[in-house]
Amino acid sequence: MSIGAKVAGNLPYLRRYARALTGNQAAGDAFVRATLEAALADDKLRNAIAESRVALYHAFSHLWTSANVDTRDTSGNNGLSGDHEVAAQERLSRITPRNRQALLLTTLEDFSIEDTATIIGSTPAEVEALVHEAIAEIDDDSATRVLIIEDEPLISMQLEDIVRALGHDICGTAATRTQAREIITRETPGLVLADIQLADGSSGLDAVDDILAIDDVPVIFITAYPERLLTGDRPEPTYLITKPFHEATVRAAISQALFFGSSRPLR
To answer: Among 14, 29, 129, which residue's Cα sits nearest to residue 79?
Structure first.
Protein backbone atom coordinates (compact mmCIF):
# COMPACT_ATOMS: atom_id res chain seq x y z
CA MET A 1 0.00 0.00 0.00
CA SER A 2 1.32 3.43 -0.92
CA ILE A 3 2.12 6.12 1.66
CA GLY A 4 -0.70 8.24 0.28
CA ALA A 5 -3.22 5.45 0.68
CA LYS A 6 -2.13 4.79 4.27
CA VAL A 7 -2.49 8.42 5.25
CA ALA A 8 -5.78 8.81 3.37
CA GLY A 9 -7.44 6.20 5.59
CA ASN A 10 -6.86 8.36 8.67
CA LEU A 11 -7.66 11.74 7.13
CA PRO A 12 -11.46 11.71 7.66
CA TYR A 13 -10.91 11.17 11.37
CA LEU A 14 -8.15 13.79 11.63
CA ARG A 15 -10.50 16.25 9.88
CA ARG A 16 -13.26 15.36 12.37
CA TYR A 17 -10.87 16.04 15.25
CA ALA A 18 -9.71 19.30 13.70
CA ARG A 19 -13.31 20.49 13.27
CA ALA A 20 -14.16 19.67 16.88
CA LEU A 21 -10.97 21.32 18.13
CA THR A 22 -11.44 24.56 16.20
CA GLY A 23 -15.25 24.60 15.99
CA ASN A 24 -15.08 25.31 12.27
CA GLN A 25 -14.64 23.10 9.21
CA ALA A 26 -12.66 25.66 7.18
CA ALA A 27 -10.25 26.31 10.05
CA GLY A 28 -9.85 22.62 10.85
CA ASP A 29 -9.16 21.72 7.23
CA ALA A 30 -6.57 24.50 7.01
CA PHE A 31 -4.59 22.92 9.85
CA VAL A 32 -4.91 19.44 8.32
CA ARG A 33 -3.73 20.77 4.97
CA ALA A 34 -0.74 22.49 6.62
CA THR A 35 0.16 19.23 8.38
CA LEU A 36 0.21 17.35 5.08
CA GLU A 37 2.26 20.09 3.44
CA ALA A 38 4.82 19.81 6.24
CA ALA A 39 4.98 16.04 5.71
CA LEU A 40 5.56 16.45 1.98
CA ALA A 41 8.60 18.57 2.75
CA ASP A 42 10.08 16.08 5.24
CA ASP A 43 10.69 12.46 4.21
CA LYS A 44 11.09 11.25 7.80
CA LEU A 45 7.81 12.85 8.87
CA ARG A 46 6.02 11.58 5.78
CA ASN A 47 7.06 7.99 6.51
CA ALA A 48 6.14 8.33 10.20
CA ILE A 49 2.59 9.56 9.62
CA ALA A 50 2.05 6.83 7.03
CA GLU A 51 2.91 4.13 9.55
CA SER A 52 1.30 5.52 12.71
CA ARG A 53 -1.98 7.30 13.48
CA VAL A 54 -0.34 8.60 16.65
CA ALA A 55 2.46 10.16 14.58
CA LEU A 56 -0.09 11.83 12.28
CA TYR A 57 -1.96 13.40 15.19
CA HIS A 58 1.31 14.36 16.86
CA ALA A 59 2.39 16.21 13.71
CA PHE A 60 -0.98 17.98 13.60
CA SER A 61 -0.78 18.85 17.31
CA HIS A 62 2.73 20.23 16.99
CA LEU A 63 1.67 22.48 14.12
CA TRP A 64 -1.57 23.56 15.81
CA THR A 65 0.18 24.64 18.99
CA SER A 66 3.23 26.27 17.41
CA ALA A 67 2.46 27.52 13.90
CA ASN A 68 0.58 30.47 12.51
CA VAL A 69 -1.76 28.90 9.96
CA ASP A 70 -4.02 31.04 7.80
CA THR A 71 -7.54 29.76 8.50
CA ARG A 72 -9.40 32.55 6.77
CA ASP A 73 -12.35 31.63 4.59
CA THR A 74 -12.41 33.08 1.10
CA SER A 75 -15.97 34.28 1.69
CA GLY A 76 -14.59 36.92 4.04
CA ASN A 77 -16.30 35.71 7.20
CA ASN A 78 -13.37 33.67 8.53
CA GLY A 79 -15.32 30.47 8.13
CA LEU A 80 -18.08 31.51 10.54
CA SER A 81 -21.50 30.86 9.08
CA GLY A 82 -23.62 32.58 11.70
CA ASP A 83 -24.09 33.89 15.21
CA HIS A 84 -23.73 30.40 16.72
CA GLU A 85 -20.22 29.91 15.34
CA VAL A 86 -19.14 33.43 16.28
CA ALA A 87 -20.26 32.75 19.85
CA ALA A 88 -18.50 29.39 19.75
CA GLN A 89 -15.18 30.98 18.85
CA GLU A 90 -15.57 33.48 21.68
CA ARG A 91 -16.19 30.62 24.09
CA LEU A 92 -13.30 28.64 22.64
CA SER A 93 -10.90 31.48 23.39
CA ARG A 94 -11.64 31.00 27.09
CA ILE A 95 -10.92 27.25 27.14
CA THR A 96 -7.33 26.10 27.64
CA PRO A 97 -6.19 24.58 24.32
CA ARG A 98 -4.24 21.67 25.83
CA ASN A 99 -7.23 20.72 27.97
CA ARG A 100 -9.46 20.58 24.91
CA GLN A 101 -6.89 18.52 23.02
CA ALA A 102 -6.64 15.98 25.84
CA LEU A 103 -10.42 15.69 26.15
CA LEU A 104 -11.04 15.23 22.42
CA LEU A 105 -8.16 12.81 21.86
CA THR A 106 -9.18 10.49 24.70
CA THR A 107 -12.90 10.56 23.96
CA LEU A 108 -13.87 11.53 20.43
CA GLU A 109 -10.73 9.98 18.89
CA ASP A 110 -10.50 7.11 21.41
CA PHE A 111 -6.74 7.32 21.98
CA SER A 112 -5.34 5.83 25.16
CA ILE A 113 -4.00 8.11 27.88
CA GLU A 114 -0.48 7.01 26.91
CA ASP A 115 -0.95 7.72 23.18
CA THR A 116 -2.54 11.08 23.97
CA ALA A 117 0.50 11.96 26.06
CA THR A 118 2.72 11.16 23.07
CA ILE A 119 0.56 13.22 20.72
CA ILE A 120 0.56 16.39 22.80
CA GLY A 121 4.04 15.96 24.29
CA SER A 122 3.01 15.35 27.87
CA THR A 123 2.91 12.62 30.53
CA PRO A 124 0.00 10.25 31.20
CA ALA A 125 -0.58 11.83 34.61
CA GLU A 126 -0.70 15.28 33.06
CA VAL A 127 -3.17 14.08 30.41
CA GLU A 128 -5.53 12.75 33.08
CA ALA A 129 -5.36 16.09 34.88
CA LEU A 130 -5.97 17.99 31.63
CA VAL A 131 -9.08 15.92 30.87
CA HIS A 132 -10.56 16.64 34.31
CA GLU A 133 -9.76 20.33 33.93
CA ALA A 134 -11.36 20.43 30.47
CA ILE A 135 -14.62 19.03 31.78
CA ALA A 136 -14.57 21.53 34.64
CA GLU A 137 -13.94 24.41 32.21
CA ILE A 138 -16.97 23.65 30.06
CA ASP A 139 -19.90 25.83 31.06
CA ASP A 140 -22.27 23.80 33.23
CA ASP A 141 -25.16 26.20 32.65
CA SER A 142 -26.10 24.56 29.36
CA ALA A 143 -28.95 22.28 30.44
CA THR A 144 -31.30 21.61 27.54
CA ARG A 145 -33.93 19.22 26.20
CA VAL A 146 -32.65 16.40 24.01
CA LEU A 147 -34.32 14.46 21.20
CA ILE A 148 -33.00 10.92 20.68
CA ILE A 149 -33.56 9.39 17.24
CA GLU A 150 -32.56 5.74 17.62
CA ASP A 151 -34.36 2.53 16.62
CA GLU A 152 -32.55 0.13 18.98
CA PRO A 153 -34.38 0.26 22.35
CA LEU A 154 -31.39 -0.68 24.51
CA ILE A 155 -29.18 1.94 22.91
CA SER A 156 -31.95 4.52 23.18
CA MET A 157 -32.31 3.80 26.91
CA GLN A 158 -28.53 3.95 27.36
CA LEU A 159 -28.47 7.37 25.69
CA GLU A 160 -31.34 8.55 27.88
CA ASP A 161 -29.37 7.59 30.99
CA ILE A 162 -26.28 9.45 29.75
CA VAL A 163 -28.28 12.57 28.90
CA ARG A 164 -30.07 12.67 32.25
CA ALA A 165 -26.83 12.04 34.15
CA LEU A 166 -25.45 15.20 32.53
CA GLY A 167 -28.40 17.20 33.85
CA HIS A 168 -30.44 17.42 30.64
CA ASP A 169 -34.05 16.45 29.98
CA ILE A 170 -35.46 14.19 27.26
CA CYS A 171 -38.06 15.88 25.07
CA GLY A 172 -38.73 12.65 23.18
CA THR A 173 -37.38 9.45 21.64
CA ALA A 174 -38.07 8.40 18.05
CA ALA A 175 -37.38 5.19 16.14
CA THR A 176 -38.45 6.58 12.76
CA ARG A 177 -38.45 9.84 10.84
CA THR A 178 -42.23 10.05 11.24
CA GLN A 179 -42.01 9.77 15.02
CA ALA A 180 -39.32 12.46 15.07
CA ARG A 181 -41.59 14.74 13.02
CA GLU A 182 -44.41 14.23 15.50
CA ILE A 183 -42.17 15.23 18.40
CA ILE A 184 -40.87 18.40 16.75
CA THR A 185 -44.42 19.59 16.07
CA ARG A 186 -44.74 19.89 19.83
CA GLU A 187 -41.27 21.05 20.82
CA THR A 188 -37.99 22.03 19.21
CA PRO A 189 -35.11 20.26 20.98
CA GLY A 190 -31.92 22.00 22.09
CA LEU A 191 -29.81 19.00 21.04
CA VAL A 192 -30.35 15.96 18.81
CA LEU A 193 -28.69 12.55 19.07
CA ALA A 194 -29.43 10.69 15.83
CA ASP A 195 -28.77 7.32 14.26
CA ILE A 196 -28.60 7.22 10.45
CA GLN A 197 -30.45 3.99 9.63
CA LEU A 198 -33.86 3.80 11.34
CA ALA A 199 -36.38 1.04 12.04
CA ASP A 200 -38.71 1.45 9.07
CA GLY A 201 -35.94 2.08 6.57
CA SER A 202 -36.22 5.84 6.93
CA SER A 203 -33.15 8.00 7.31
CA GLY A 204 -31.92 9.78 10.39
CA LEU A 205 -30.31 12.27 8.00
CA ASP A 206 -33.75 13.23 6.68
CA ALA A 207 -35.14 13.44 10.20
CA VAL A 208 -32.35 15.83 11.16
CA ASP A 209 -33.00 17.92 8.04
CA ASP A 210 -36.63 18.26 9.17
CA ILE A 211 -35.42 19.66 12.50
CA LEU A 212 -32.81 21.97 11.00
CA ALA A 213 -35.48 23.43 8.71
CA ILE A 214 -37.13 24.72 11.89
CA ASP A 215 -34.13 25.72 13.99
CA ASP A 216 -30.34 25.52 13.89
CA VAL A 217 -29.64 23.09 16.74
CA PRO A 218 -26.57 20.98 17.51
CA VAL A 219 -26.66 17.43 16.18
CA ILE A 220 -24.59 14.41 17.17
CA PHE A 221 -24.75 11.42 14.83
CA ILE A 222 -24.25 8.03 16.49
CA THR A 223 -23.99 5.35 13.85
CA ALA A 224 -22.46 2.06 12.79
CA TYR A 225 -22.00 3.55 9.31
CA PRO A 226 -19.66 6.56 9.71
CA GLU A 227 -18.36 6.10 6.17
CA ARG A 228 -21.70 7.38 4.87
CA LEU A 229 -20.92 10.80 6.28
CA LEU A 230 -17.11 10.96 6.21
CA THR A 231 -16.85 11.18 2.44
CA GLY A 232 -15.28 14.60 1.87
CA ASP A 233 -17.93 15.21 -0.82
CA ARG A 234 -20.03 17.64 1.24
CA PRO A 235 -19.97 19.47 4.55
CA GLU A 236 -19.58 16.84 7.25
CA PRO A 237 -21.00 16.71 10.77
CA THR A 238 -18.71 17.99 13.47
CA TYR A 239 -19.98 15.41 15.94
CA LEU A 240 -19.95 11.83 14.66
CA ILE A 241 -19.65 8.84 17.01
CA THR A 242 -19.17 5.28 15.80
CA LYS A 243 -21.10 2.35 17.28
CA PRO A 244 -20.36 0.56 19.50
CA PHE A 245 -19.54 3.66 21.53
CA HIS A 246 -18.04 4.42 24.91
CA GLU A 247 -20.26 6.40 27.26
CA ALA A 248 -17.38 8.81 27.88
CA THR A 249 -17.30 9.58 24.15
CA VAL A 250 -21.00 10.46 24.11
CA ARG A 251 -20.67 12.60 27.25
CA ALA A 252 -17.76 14.52 25.76
CA ALA A 253 -19.56 15.02 22.43
CA ILE A 254 -22.66 16.36 24.19
CA SER A 255 -20.57 18.81 26.19
CA GLN A 256 -18.71 19.89 23.07
CA ALA A 257 -21.87 20.27 20.97
CA LEU A 258 -23.60 22.39 23.60
CA PHE A 259 -20.40 24.35 24.13
CA PHE A 260 -20.28 25.33 20.47
CA GLY A 261 -24.02 25.90 20.34
CA SER A 262 -24.57 24.71 16.78
CA SER A 263 -23.17 22.03 14.49
CA ARG A 264 -25.37 22.42 11.43
CA PRO A 265 -23.85 19.59 9.49
CA LEU A 266 -25.40 18.61 6.25
CA ARG A 267 -26.31 18.69 2.81
So the answer is: 29
Backbone angles phi, psi at 223, to 5 degrees: -150, 155
In CATH, the number for domain 145-260 is 3.40.50.2300
CATH 3.40.50.2300 in the chain, residues? 145-260
Where does CATH 1.10.1740.10 sit in the chain?
1-81
Taking the complete model, does pTM exceed 0.90, yes or no?
A: no
Q: 95-137 in CATH: which number?
A: 1.10.10.10
Mean of per-residue pLDDT scores for the chain: 82
pLDDT of residue 192: 95
Q: Is the pLDDT of residue 45 over 70?
A: yes
Architecture of domain 1-81: Orthogonal Bundle (1.10)
SS3 letters across the chain: CCHHHHHHHHHHHHHHHHHHHHCCHHHHHHHHHHHHHHHHCCHHHHHHHHHCHHHHHHHHHHHHHHCCCCCCCCCCCCCCCCHHHHHHHHHHCCCCHHHHHHHHHHCCCCCCHHHHHHHHCCCHHHHHHHHHHHHHHCCCCCCCEEEEECCCHHHHHHHHHHHHHCCCEEEEEECCHHHHHHHHHHCCCCEEEECCECCCCCEHHHHHHHHHCCCCCCEEEEECCHHHCCCCCCCCCCCEEECCCCHHHHHHHHHHHHHHCCCCCCC
